[in-house]
Amino acid sequence: KEKKIAIAIDGPAAAGKSTVAKIVAKKLGYIYIDTGAMYRSLTYSVLHHHIDIQNKEEVVRHLHNLSIDINKEQQVFVNNENVTDAIRSEQVTNNVSIIASIADVRKEMVQRQQKLANKRAVVMDGRDIGTHVIPDAEIKVFLIASVSERAKRRHEENTQKGFPSNLHQIKNEIEKRDKMDSEREVSPLKKAEDAIEIDTTHLSIDQVAEKILDLAISN
Ligand code: CDP
Ligand code: CDP
């Protein structure tokens, strides 16, 4: 396929965005950009440096001095420190939506993300990709699934990795984060008007990837 396009994948927590985005990117030979990892990286660094997360100015100043790099193997580096595992901790997960609600944090993150996406041939996933980061993306997908299915998926993922995991706790955390992400003032989690919604509750990973690849190929 000749024409390089941008594919924006948004949706609530654990809907399968990153798993499916990686498959689609690989099939098309595109790069995959995980914007959630960027917000998680800032959150990790803020907590690590004992910065008060309610102090917006301080958090924004911290971001301006922070390099966040993600390599082809999806390893994440904050000022050259490998934080790939650290950014998935419960502490980061429980604080990331607070950091992500700061308007000036989003402004800076969106600028960085737009630079990464400017050459097209990109699959980017997050919460505001189709609405704010790449509003002119050729393909926009909004992935959803029931909250119990999403909690079950995260729980199984943790269990497989040998991490301690509590299904009830995960469900609560996901609901809380979705609520904060949907209700924040600046670029909330929201389906773009021209996005195609896919309910993945009863779909396999490959079925979802196939649907998105079909959209890309027929574009
Ligand atoms: O993978 P998971 O659904 O757990 O979350 P993520 O994609 O890593 O995103 C973590 C958090 O970052 C979200 O809950 C949002 O608060 C924030 N985020 C955002 O605000 N905008 C984005 N484009 C991506 C993530
Ligand atoms: O990126 P996001 O938070 O939206 O979700 P993810 O981390 O890609 O997916 C969460 C888990 O759900 C992973 O372990 C996937 O393997 C699984 N999954 C699934 O079981 N069925 C799907 N249709 C999609 C994802």
TrEMBL record:
RNA-binding keyword on record: no
GO process terms (BP): nucleobase-containing small molecule interconversion; pyrimidine nucleotide metabolic process
EC number: 2.7.4.25
GO MF: ATP binding; CMP kinase activity; dCMP kinase activity
Nucleus as UniProt keyword: no
InterPro entries found in the cross-reference section: Cytidylate_kin, Cytidylate_kinase_dom, P-loop_NTPase
A cellular component term, taken from the record's GO annotations: cytosol
Keywords on record: ATP-binding, Cytoplasm, Kinase, Nucleotide-binding, Transferase
Main location: cytoplasm
Gene3D superfamilies: P-loop containing nucleotide triphosphate hydrolases
Subcellular location as annotated: Cytoplasm
Domain of life per record: Bacteria
UniProt-annotated binding residues for ATP: 11-19
Domain Cytidylate kinase: start-end pairs: 7-215
Pfam families: Cytidylate_kin
PANTHER family per record: CYTIDYLATE KINASE, CYTIDYLATE KINASE/PANTOATE-BETA-ALANINE LIGASE
Identification of the protein by name: Cytidylate kinase
Species in which this protein is naturally found: Gracilibacillus boraciitolerans JCM 21714
Organism ancestry: Bacteria, Bacillati, Bacillota, Bacilli, Bacillales
